[in-house]
Amino acid sequence: MVPIIAFAQFGANFHQTNIPFVGINYEIKDRIRPEFRLGVDAYLEDLSAEFITTYDILNKEEYELYGGLGVRGGEFTGLVIPIGLNVYPFSKKNFGFHIELAPVIGEDDILRGSWGIRYRFRKSE
Known about the structure:
Blueprint: E1 8-16, E2 21-28, E3 32-39, E4 49-59, E5 63-73, E6 78-80, E7 83-87, E8 95-106, E9 110-121
Antiparallel strand pairs: 1-2, 1-9, 2-3, 3-4, 4-5, 5-6, 5-7, 6-8, 7-8, 8-9
């Protein structure tokens, strides 16, 4: 049996939006990504955090279409339902771009759209 770490990799990302955030994730078997996100561009006492898990519905070498579910605390507390696209246009598939649409359902329902960059810490292919 091969340990799960052999099929996993860490990643980091930045989402630009009117509610910007950074994320750190751990990719499991190239399809499942638990991710911790922290709001940026805010006073420390106003920081918001969220934890989501996404699943790649389509997983190709050049792109990934994903959907997921998570929770958000702080400003706009509630359930998060991210749907997005990661694109890796360069020959090394570590660095890429993403777009995401995520309803946040809670006391104040919002629809958050974001775009940004993504980096996967993995061996070059």
